[in-house]
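Need tokens for this chain, all 211 residues.
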Amino acid sequence: MKYTMQLFSKMTFFAAISFFMKLNAQSEIKINAAFLPLGMINIAVEKSLNKNFSLQAEGFISPWKSFGGKNLQIYMGTLEGRYYFKEVMKGWYVGAYGSIAAYNLQKWNYLKAQPVLNDDGSPQLLADGSVRVTERYQKGLALVIGISGGYHFTINEKLGLDVYAGVGTSQSIYRGYLKDTNERYDAAEKWNKSGEIIPTRGGLMLTYKIN
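Here are the structure tokens for all 211 residues:
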């Protein structure tokens, strides 16, 4: 499943780039400078549709099986429509986006180690009599739909900066695992499900105009 979703995300992103590059319209390529120091890759292509509307295809890869001791592996593709109040790729804008992702990570509420419980709710004990304590992580797929906003700065004729953030609903199917044994901790036989409203986008994109 992981490799299928990785391939799907990459194919979707590069197919979108190929399509956009054929359009005779104003376009930019972008890279998220905020994530580069962390070893994460977030690149995008934005194409104008008319004076105020544009379409952006984006790919995000966090390759870390372990980052600071935490699972943080994400492969995500995003398609976003934007409306600029002044002119495409200039000034303030709002947008709507959809993303699909495959992940192996520790959700924000599972970052700390917690006791492992028996079926009756009592804590499991190790051979030395101490309580078994471990972290938990999740592997799964997510569909995200959200709204975004930002500001596009112009540096010169070719270069610019795109500062943005977004919040959306994330609907996931996943399996949860105990970190010390890689055994499942959730009671679901196949997939667990979750839904939440969280920040899902943000950064500082360095932009380069190619048309």
